[in-house]
Design goal:
The structure holds two protein chains of two kinds.
Chain A: E1 6-8, E2 11-13, E3 17-19, E4 41-43, E5 60-63, E6 66-69, H1 78-91, E7 96-100, H2 105-116, E8 122-128, H3 144-157, E9 162-165, H4 173-183, E10 187-190, E11 194-197, E12 212-216, H5 221-232, E13 239-242, H6 248-257, E14 261-264, H7 267-270, H8 274-289
Chain B: E1 15-28, E2 31-37, H1 39-44, E3 50-53, E4 65-73, E5 76-82, H2 86-91, E6 99-106, E7 118-124, H3 128-140, E8 148-154, H4 163-167, E9 172-177, E10 184-185, H5 188-199, E11 208-213, H6 216-228, E12 233-236, E13 252-257, E14 260-265, E15 272-274
Parallel strand pairs in B: 7-8, 7-11, 8-9, 9-10, 11-12
Antiparallel strand pairs in B: 1-2, 1-6, 2-5, 3-4, 3-6, 4-5, 12-15, 13-14
Helix pairs in contact in B: 5-6
Classes of the chains: A alpha/beta, B alpha/beta.
Chain lengths: ~300, ~280
């Protein structure tokens, strides 16, 4: 009997198909297309302590099999989120994971403290660690010691389980994964976007105002898979795979490499119903192959 | 002067549809008119709305391409497009009967003027569709076509888009060509300015509403012109759109918020904005 549910950090999710932060807002727009309570989880747009305006246009640029974005973490801020966005998600009975970011350890902790007051509804917190620490400009996701400290401190202020979202823009993602596991992270999600760039050869200008941006889409899937595979060999906490997923076959690839759940991001732009199609097709594939659940396949790549 | 905000009715929700191409014709050099059998969208669409079309080809990127709705008629919708890049070139080859994957209706819509208002429309090229749709809609709702004045701009008479079809609606149409080969000579603001000076029309003494669509540089100039005559103006903007329905925050425009500013989504909070809201960049 097929059961798509997965349990991560002690919480049960109806299926392993989640939506990635920054690609589904706070659920309102996608709710116009389908019932968002059917998703395994929706990871909200990154919330910061204070509202952020985001970067000027142009913020995005199409690239071969993907796109660049430098939105600039435009968001309403944690207070407004809790007041006006979370109620909508509650009303729709969505399974909510809140993505949070900060510019210092105390920043992240301040956000987590406020989110902690809604622990009956916020199932997990995903920490977007690809933010620079204001004190030295170093991104939390790039330094194992900083990453470990961040998780340790955040764990002190919230009982909501924490996912550490890892950046691929590092020499050894396994080291960062190890560090956050040491810090007490309940799970890791990877990968965030890859740093990329594009230039307009008529105007000589970069195509996005921030000059560099994050690359996402099908082009990054092979990089994401390699990193999930690499991280799976280093840590024991669950992995949520992200990067260029657009169909059920991609999902199986990530699961075989070690992911217990996945997040779909850029694919939502081309087809808002992607996740719904993937859930259906995944069920079909598992049924055909005679599997009862995806957990039977986690990390089962034949690499020996 | 009455300030009006663009609207979005609650039953205007978008959907993803596979729709049949009824026809796809080149009406002038590199300008195509496509009709699609899209009953659900035709039933809901309002002037200002757009659709987002998937181009299923390895030769183009992953984004859909947005097109403003030109009109709706008996379950069909029409769009006008120029073959700018690879995506639109591929679209121009869609044959009759082809199943197009589209999302719509998207965006907000123009807030309609009062029945007795004089209506001024300014746009050219692919800025024409939302204004043409608005004209047809107003006439269907009871506006006298003679109250509507459409200033249609282009570089020369051959580049004018849908000028005859607009005239056939019974509205006043004015061609404005940069080379003077037809109608008023100059850029579109010259045509509108001439009319305003000639009729002495002003928003501070009578009911008049303006609507515009076109490139940002033109909208900036037109916005200043209408404002100086106290004429409220709504503009339909365009921007690069990864999603077209508000989830990615990629297509933003800078707008006023009290003494501060906020970036709003052209695809969801727009494409129609009150011209006074927009912070014009150089």
């Amino acid at each position: 009997m097929l059961d798509l549910s997965v349990t991560i950090a002690g919480k049960k999710f109806k299926n392993p198909i989640w939506l990635a932060s920054g690609t589904c807002g706070y659920g309102e727009e996608l709710a116009e297309f389908f019932d968002i309570s059917q998703l395994g989880a929706i990871v909200t747009k990154t919330i910061t302590l204070k509202p952020r305006k985001g970067h000027p246009s142009p913020r995005v640029c199409e690239t071969t099999s993907g796109m660049l974005n430098a939105i600039g973490l435009q968001n309403v801020g944690v207070d407004e989120f809790l007041k006006s966005k979370l109620p909508f998600l509650k009303n729709k009975k969505a399974s909510v994971i809140v993505n949070a970011a900060g510019y210092s350890v105390s920043d992240y902790c301040a956000v987590c403290e406020k989110l902690n007051l809604h622990s009956e509804f916020i199932r997990l917190i995903e920490l977007n660690m690809s933010c620079p620490n204001v004190s030295d400009g170093m991104e939390f996701s790039k330094d194992p010691a900083m990453a470990e400290t961040l998780i340790k401190e955040a764990k002190k202020v919230t009982g909501i389980p924490l996912i550490a979202k890892l950046s691929p823009n590092v020499s050894n993602i396994g080291d960062i994964a190890d560090a956050v596991e040491q810090g007490g992270a309940d799970a890791v999600s990877l990968i965030n976007t890859l740093v990329g760039m594009a230039v307009n050869i008529e105007s000589f200008k970069p195509r996005i105002s921030n000059i560099t941006g994050g690359l996402s889409g099908p082009a990054i899937k092979p990089v994401a898979l390699a990193m999930v595979y690499q991280v799976h060999r280093r840590i024991r906490i669950p992995i949520i795979g992200i990067g260029g997923i657009s169909n059920h076959k991609d999902v199986i690839e990530f699961i075989l490499c070690g992911a217990s759940a996945v997040q779909i991001g850029t694919a939502n732009f081309g087809n808002p119903l992607t996740a719904m199609d993937v859930i259906e097709d995944l069920s079909g594939w598992l049924g055909e192959k005679g599997y009862d659940s995806t957990s039977q396949l986690v990390g089962k790549i034949k690499d020996k | 002067m009455v300030e009006i905000a663009p609207t979005c009715p609650i039953d205007n929700m978008p959907g993803v549809y596979q729709v049949k191409v009824n026809s796809n014709i080149e009406i002038s050099s590199n300008v195509f008119l496509m009709s699609l059998l899209a009953t659900e969208i035709a039933g809901k669409a309002l002037p200002g709305n757009f659709i987002n079309v998937k181009i299923d080809s390895s030769e183009v990127g992953i984004w859909r391409r947005p097109f403003s709705i030109l009109d709706t008629e008996q379950g069909n919708i029409r769009i006008l497009y120029k073959t700018f890049g690879k995506g639109t070139k591929i679209m121009s080859g869609y044959p009759q009967g082809f199943l197009a994957d589209i999302i719509g209706p998207l965006g907000n819509s123009f807030s309609l003027p009062d029945k007795d208002d004089t209506v001024l429309l300014a746009g050219g090229g692919i800025g024409v569709p939302p204004l043409y749709f608005l004209s047809k809609h107003l006439i269907n709702e009871g506006t006298d076509p003679r109250q509507i004045h459409f200033f249609n701009g282009a570089t020369d008479h051959e580049s004018l888009v849908f000028i005859e079809e607009s005239a056939e609606l019974g509205i006043n149409t004015y061609a404005v060509t940069e080379d003077g080969s037809m109608g008023i000579e100059g850029i579109i603001t010259v045509g509108v300015e001439q009319f305003i000076k000639g009729t002495k029309i002003t928003g501070s003494k009578e009911r008049v509403s303006a609507y515009s669509c076109g490139p940002m540089s033109m909208l900036k100039a037109i916005s200043g012109l209408f404002s100086s005559h106290s004429i409220p103006c709504q503009m339909a903007l365009e921007e690069l759109m990864p999603c077209g329905f508000g989830i990615c925050m990629g297509c933003t425009v800078k707008t006023k918020m009290g003494n501060d500013f906020v970036y709003k989504r052209v695809c969801k909070d727009g494409p129609v904005f009150n011209s006074k809201e927009i912070i014009w960049e150089d």
